[in-house]
Amino acid sequence: MTDARRAGVALARAKERLDTLDWYPAPVRLRRVRLLSAPWLFRLPWLRRFDGYATWTVILLRGPVAEASDDLVTHELCHVWQMQHRPLAMPLSYLWQGYANNRYEVQARRAAAITAPDRPDGA
Ligand SMILES: [Zn+2]
Fold first, then answer.
1. Rounded to the nearest whole angstrom, what is the distance from the C-alpha of residue 28 to the centroid of ligand 1?
2. How far is the CA of 5 from the centre of ligand 1 (A)?
3. Architecture of domain 3-114
4. Would you list the domain boundaries of the chain?
5. Lower CB count within 10 Å: N or C terminus of the chain?
6. Residue 119: pLDDT band with limits 50, 70, 90
7. Ion ligand 1 residue ranges (Cβ < 5 Å)
8. Is residue 60's pLDDT more than 80?
């Protein structure tokens, strides 16, 4: 399987998980969204502690696409979903809310946690 195909499958799986949530008026749209490995990016000092980074249409991963966990892809795709509804407020929120307790960060962590198939109780 090519990386592009793998990425498409991983994104579709993550979308399926996010589609069970009704946090925004419309489900996440995968059109134009790409999932790529970009290890060089995570050598930058301000990204060193992350495993993934989402922009409006591209999700960049520290590791190979083939090794990305479903939870990580779901977390990052949740950020894409947030930006599809709050294209400026979401990225700008990191300037005044910081990272750890940022409401969008908390929401993305929650999205991955409560949709995880091995945690049907939602804990
Ligand atoms: Zn995040």
1. 16
2. 24
3. 2-Layer Sandwich (3.30)
4. 3-114
5. C
6. low
7. 105, 108
8. yes
